[in-house]
Amino acid sequence: MSQPRRILIWLLLAAMAAMVSYIGFRGYLNPDFLINFSNSFYC
Q1: What pTM, to 2 d.p., does this model score?
Q2: How far apart are CA 1 and CA 14, in angstroms?
């Protein structure tokens, strides 16, 4: 496999991993979840 093709594959994998991480953190840090999480420590 040529070097430019290998770099392109790694960049594509990194972009997909970043997208999955972004979606995961966005769902995890939504306001409803954070409010319920803080209320669980308060009560």
Answers
A1: 0.59
A2: 19
The residue with tokens 């970043």 is 18
Two structure tokens written together for 41: 């420590």
Tokens of 2: 């040529």
SS (H, E, C) the chain: CCHHHHHHHHHHHHHHHHHHHHHHHHHHCCHHHHHHHHHHHHC
C-alpha 32/C-alpha 39 separation (Å) is: 11
- Chain segment 1-43, per-residue pLDDT in tens: 799 999 999 999 999 999 999 988 877 777 777 777 777 776 5
